[in-house]
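note to self: dont lose this again. the chain is below, predicted strucutre after it. 230 aa total, dont forget to put it in the shared folder this time
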Amino acid sequence: MSKRKRADPKLSGRDPNEAHEKKLLDMIRSKQGAGATMYELKGDKTIPPTMFTRLVQSLKKKGLIKEIPTMNNKGHKHFLAMEFEPDKELTGGEWYIDGTLDVSKIEDLKAKCVMILERHRHRVVTLDVMCGYFVKEEKLSVDQTKEILKNLVLDNQIMEVKSNGLNEFASTRIGEVCYKLTGKKSGNGEARGGAFASIPCGACPHIGLCTPDGVISPTTCVYFQKWLEF
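---
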């Protein structure tokens, strides 16, 4: 038997204003980590348009909701219920601090990747080895490590190759993803990608979320702007 949801003690719903507040809070809660914009909230035509700002401020004052700025537009607010954490699409994920890309951290991690490959200059380094180091030493996730490696490929500092099990790939499984510094012959490995790989969008892990007016867009992408300047 499912439990009945307990009424919020801060909202009794006994007067019209609190009834509107409760309806607004329920709408915001239904959005969970994505939050709701003021535009979305105003879609409820049962609440007088002039009341929305006052109702939102009242819910904030009672500690029931919070404001979260979007990654690329701090003036664009999403309202979340206090019990939810914002989705990565709002905050930008682990690489962002207060909506700003942590460039120094990314560049530091990229430099460490290059140092590892410098120490193994005469042989390729597998993706598993790279992930093993960064997950253990830098406390990154596997996906974060892959993003750092992809950015280095975009910067043309390293190359991603697939092993065929011969020569410098003798110690790796056929088809295994490996990395090496650029400026060297690729041996018998099969270089991955093509002309499109020079465009940042070609290897971007967030390409599916990128739209002209979205949270992630070409106008706010550091790598896309660098590519255009180049």
